[in-house]
Amino acid sequence: GFCANLLLSQTPEHILAQTNNKTEIICELNKEHAGVYWYRWNQERQNFEFLVFLNLLGKATYGANISQDKFSVHGATSHTSYSLHISRLQASDNGTYYCSVSQSFQLLLGSGTWLGVVDVLPPPPKSTQAPLSKKPMRCLTKSKAAGKKGACNPLIWVPLAASVLVLLLTLVPTAYRLHRLRRRLWLRIH
């Protein structure tokens, strides 16, 4: 069976690439393994497609009908980092790619990388940043900036307020005991 596992991490999470270009997906393992598998989840067919396995010796074993010219895997000498290279991207390459290792008779899956291939990449979003003001700005020295930040910083005043509250609550029983002792003393005197 397949198991999603946090011991394998993939970067990036999402890739939007243009047709006929190439891309790379990196898989980081928390410890050395005997090799890494790469799979693609096909949304239309609702199945995993085996792409390639790279063993510790650097020998690659490809799945049925998988082109060695299109897919290649490179491993670091530490055997904890592997990268899948996909060239000549086409719409048929769309899907979610997973690196995987075998452990205790199950395949542990990485976090997954979604790949979308389009003919034309969308333009980058326009900046909504306000134009820079020509007006001179007052500069703060480091000590003034730290003083200003410290006064409003919740990381400072929340624990401080909680400490004061706890101190007040511990003083209540003490004040009550002192009041009772004073009253007893007054009763004994009179």
Automatic annotation (TrEMBL):
Provide the coiled-coil residue spans. none
Q: Where is the signal peptide?
A: none
Molecular function terms from GO: coreceptor activity; MHC class I protein binding
Write down a Pfam family by its short name. Answer: V-set
Q: Which SUPFAM superfamilies match?
A: Immunoglobulin (SSF48726)
Q: Which GO terms describe its cellular component?
A: cell surface; membrane
Cell location: Membrane
Main localization is membrane
Would you kindly state one Gene Ontology biological process term found in this protein's UniProt entry? adaptive immune response
Residue ranges of the TM segments: 156-178
InterPro entries recorded: CD8B, Ig-like_dom, Ig-like_dom_sf, Ig-like_fold, Ig_sub, Ig_V-set
Q: Which residues form the Ig-like domain?
A: 12-104
Determine if Transcription regulation is one of this entry's keywords: no
* Membrane topology designation: Single-pass type I membrane protein
What keywords were assigned to this record? Adaptive immunity, Disulfide bond, Glycoprotein, Immunity, Immunoglobulin domain, Membrane, Signal, Transmembrane, Transmembrane helix
Q: In its UniProt entry, what is this protein called?
A: T-cell surface glycoprotein CD8 beta chain
